[in-house]
From TrEMBL:
The protein, known as: TRAP-type C4-dicarboxylate transport system substrate-binding protein
CDD domains associated with the record: PBP2_TRAP_Dctp3_4 (cd13665)
A Pfam match: DctP
GO biological process, one term: transmembrane transport
Gene3D superfamilies: Bacterial extracellular solute-binding protein, family 7
Length: 358
């Protein structure tokens, strides 16, 4: 009897021990699952310099946020900080590098000297539209490791361009390079400074918000700007002459912190990779093309006279600005880049894409 009683007690202790072990294991498994769930959920901080009602926010970023949310079953969400809320336009790229923001968007030109190969998009007569320029830029990025190396400290999402810049003026009709000589011309970038100087004019750097009043008061004689500013900044009200020559383009970046990307699980990395890239870049570019068309139409309706540099009318401009291309190739070559190869490929893409669109 006593032995039987001892055996029962031993069996009871073993049973309780078994129950304890199973409960501990279950709790550990639950904790691991909960921890995994937390790690797989991401609320991405998105910083950019555009206003919150700009189409880059309302169409591109909002669309990206919706796609990621839906395709990851809500694991990835986005929180937006537009209008340089977290840092000025020139700080956006570094904010992604240091992970002050998970995603950042801005203009390359605000970081002069940092992306020497991307400046190819600013060369004259290359970009024909924002979508056209965006596809060229993304293709060059995909094909040339040297351009990828420029972005090695972040994870690029989409690289794109605004529409080509044209020349607008209030009082002076500009048809030939000689018409530019001696003028004070608003410039958007260091490359545009060189273009304006090559045409015999004086570049004046100023924020876009100051251009309207400067044209109106005669502080500047002309401005190098894309068509969308005629609409978005109401420049049509102070523009009587427009010279269309596709003089330069302004490239943009949207990049993710490398650490943020690495913290995604493999499934979510694949989902993101399938959303970003060339098609999203073209879509971002098209935002500027749409507003550009509205801007040009608005200016014409307001009485602006348009000069299109085509055929023989373009030759003198090409001859005046050809040294810009040679200088870019020489400088990049001296820096150790395959500059001639990159430029030749860019021009090849220009023709390929133009023929396709026709």
């Amino acid at each position: 009897m006593q032995n039987s009683h001892i055996r029962k007690r031993i069996l009871l202790v073993m049973f309780l021990l078994f129950v304890f072990v199973m409960m501990t294991a279950c709790n550990s498994t639950l904790a691991i699952k909960q921890e995994s769930s937390v790690e797989d959920s991401h609320n991405l901080i998105v910083s950019h310099f555009q206003p919150g009602n700009h189409p880059i926010q309302t169409k591109i970023f909002d669309g990206l946020a919706s796609d990621l949310h839906d395709q990851t079953d809500g694991r990835i969400t986005m929180e937006f900080y537009p209008s340089n809320t977290l840092g000025d336009a020139g700080s956006q790229y570094d904010m992604a590098v240091t992970r002050e923001a998970d995603i950042a968007l801005s203009v390359y030109g605000y970081s002069p000297g940092r992306f020497p190969l991307v400046t190819i998009m600013e060369l004259p007569f290359l970009a024909e539209s924002a979508e056209h320029a965006s596809e060229i830029l993304m293709t060059l990025y995909e094909e040339f490791p040297e351009m990828q190396e420029e972005h090695a400290d972040t994870y690029p999402l989409f690289l794109f361009s605004a529409e080509p810049a044209q020349i607008i003026s209030k009082d002076i009709k500009i048809e030939t390079p000689d018409d530019m000589k001696g003028l004070r011309v608003r410039s958007p970038s260091p490359m545009a400074n060189k273009i304006i100087e090559a045409l015999g004019a004086t570049p004046i750097s100023m924020p876009m918000g100051d251009v309207y009043e400067s044209l109106e008061r005669g502080v500047i004689d002309a401005a190098v700007v894309p068509f969308e500013t005629l609409y978005n900044y109401s420049f049509h009200e102070v523009t009587n002459y427009i010279t269309i020559g596709d003089f330069s383009a302004t490239p943009f970046f949207s990049v993710m912190s490398q650490k943020t990307y690495e913290n995604f699980n493999e499934e979510d990395q694949l989902i993101l990779d399938n959303i970003i890239g060339k098609e999203l870049a073209k879509e971002a570019g098209s935002v500027y093309d749409v507003d550009g068309e509205i801007g040009l139409e608005t200016a014409i309706e307001s009485g602006a006279e348009v000069t299109r540099l085509e055929g023989d009318a373009l030759i003198a401009w090409q001859e005046a600005l050809e040294p810009m291309v040679d200088e870019w190739i020489d400088e990049r070559t001296e820096e150790g880049y395959p500059a001639q190869e990159i430029y030749d490929r860019a021009m090849e893409l220009k023709e390929e894409l133009s023929d396709r669109e026709e």
